[in-house]
Design goal:
- By secondary structure, the chain is α+β, with helices and mostly antiparallel strands.
- The chain has a single domain, classed as GIY-YIG endonuclease, CATH 3.40.1440.10.
- Helix content is about 40%, strand content about 20%.
- It has 4 helices and 3 strands.
- Strands 2-1-3 form a 3-stranded antiparallel sheet, with helices on both faces.
- Strand 1 and strand 2 form a beta hairpin.
- The longest helix is centred in the last third of the chain and has 13 residues.
- The relative contact order is 0.24.
């Protein structure tokens, strides 16, 4: 999966949201599942519920910053539009 990805992880439906950017979505989602970060250890955000691909690293960084500034309701709507069941999308990657 080449490119750069903006993604959202959560602990559960409507739970704590983590927005990030990576060049390797499989590896990054795996790290969240292994609770490799302090944030994931604390909040359990290990379920990949949203991602989008970008060809350019700068565009991905800009989009990540944009989403991070959004109101929570907007992020929830974004997830619901593409993943209404809040399915863990990481299974589609591995």
């Amino acid at each position: 999966m080449n490119g750069y990805y903006v993604y959202i992880m959560t602990s559960k439906r409507n739970g704590t949201l983590y927005t990030g950017m990576t060049g390797n979505l499989c590896q990054r989602a795996g790290a969240h599942k292994k609770k490799a970060s302090e944030f994931t250890k604390k909040y359990g955000a290990k379920k990949l519920v949203y991602y989008e691909r970008h060809d350019n690293e700068q565009k991905a960084k800009t989009r990540e910053k944009q989403i991070k500034r959004w109101k929570r309701e907007w992020k929830l709507r974004l997830i619901e539009e593409v993943n209404p069941g809040w399915k863990d999308l990481s299974g589609d990657l591995f």
